[in-house]
Amino acid sequence: MKHGIFGGAVNDGTLDDVVAEARSAERDGFDSFWAPNIFGHDALTALAIVGREVPRIELGTSVVPTYPRHPHAIAQQSHTVAAASGNRFTLGIGLSHRIVIENMLGMSYDKPVRHLREYLSVLMPLSRGETAHFDGETITVHAGVAAKGSQGFGVVVAALGEQMLRVTAAMADGTLTWCTGPATLSSHTIPTITRAAEELGRRAPRVIAALPVCVTSDKAAAAERAAKVFAVYGSLPSYRAMLDMEGVAGPADIAITGSTAEVQDRISALEVIGVTDFAAVEFGATPDEIGRTRDALKGLLTR
Fold first, then answer.
1. DSSP of 270-292, one letter per residue?
2. How large a percentage of the chain has pLDDT more than 90?
3. Which of 11, 122, 184, 208 allows an S-S link to 277, with CB 3.0 to 4.6 Å?
């Protein structure tokens, strides 16, 4: 299992902070650095800058919403990031949420499964440097992208429900999850996407799991903090469904907390169930917790 760091500076820091965050992850030996795309800096642009400054680590978005960006436009951006980073880029995409797409942006969130299928019908050939020829119900594209220096990029989808996982298995390179606990990954996410890929004769998909992590001697305080920091995710329907499937009240209940040994054992157990990549969302509250959490994660790199 590969190990990565889920950055936060792209939302609440400067571009220099994003570079420093990625550089720290690379210096510490992690395999990947993932940048969310919410309401801060544009993750693709930020990672293009990181790619020029930080030379070795895999870079990925987690995730860029699809509805506001035409698949040809996002392919063009992604090829540019690939070229800027020496072809170390993986594009993570997701539908976002109805409250964001309809209420905030004034766009239709109609038929999300159809939307993803049509989106990938255009994006995937473009990601490989091929010309896309597709006439769908909502998307029509007959065009290519020629970005010198890019050898293409991988595409993973924040797929949670069964239909989304099956489309992802059929068309993309894997999935990237958030707010999805180990029981749900084991009983739902991994078997669904893996079986669907096998049925189609496709190679085993990448399964990237992101979860909150904190090494602490005060698990109660960490749980209380996680409940506040990640509260919004418990109210969003798609994540709420995953939390309900896990049988937990909220995101705090799937946070990985405790001693160094407890945290390392729980993360390592994810590999046993089929997770191919783990992306840690560090949420230590004190310098001691922050340092111990990073040290515990680094310790996993030599296991």
1. HHHTT--EEEEEE--SSHHHHHH
2. 99
3. 208
Q: What is the pLDDT of residue 114?
A: 98
Q: Where are the domains of the chain?
A: 2-300
Whether 173 and 205 have beta carbons less than 8 Å apart is answered as: yes
Q: Rounded to whole angstroms, what are the CA distances from 121 to 116, 131, 132, 140, 282?
A: 8, 11, 8, 10, 35
Structure tokens at 205: 């998909």
User: What is the distance between the alpha carbons of residues 46 and 80, in angstroms, rounded to a whole number?
Assistant: 12
Residues 58, 160, 183: CA angle, nearest 5 degrees: 90
Do the beta carbons of residue 40 and residue 11 sit within 8 Å? Answer: yes
Quote the tokens at residue 10: 């792209």
> Given this model, what pLDDT does residue 303 score?
78
**Buried-exposed string 277-291: b where 16+ CB fall within 10 A, e elsewhere:** bbbbbbbbeeeebee
The pLDDT of residue 223: 97
Which residues have a Cβ under 8 Å from the Cβ of 259 and sit 6 or more positions away? 215, 217
Residue given tokens 């499937």 in the structure block: 245
| Size of the chain, expressed as the number of residues it contains | 303
Angle between helices 162-171 and 190-199 (to 10 degrees): 40
**Mind listing the pLDDT tens digit for each residue in 151-171?**
999 999 999 999 999 999 999
Joined together, the tokens standing for residue 120 give 């990938």
pLDDT tens digits, 255-267: 999 999 999 999 9
DSSP 148-217: TT----EEEE---SHHHHHHHHHHSSEEEEES--HHHIIIIIHHHHHHHHHHTTPPPPEEEEEEEEEE-S
Amino acid, single-letter form, for residue 74? I
CATH class of 2-300: alpha beta
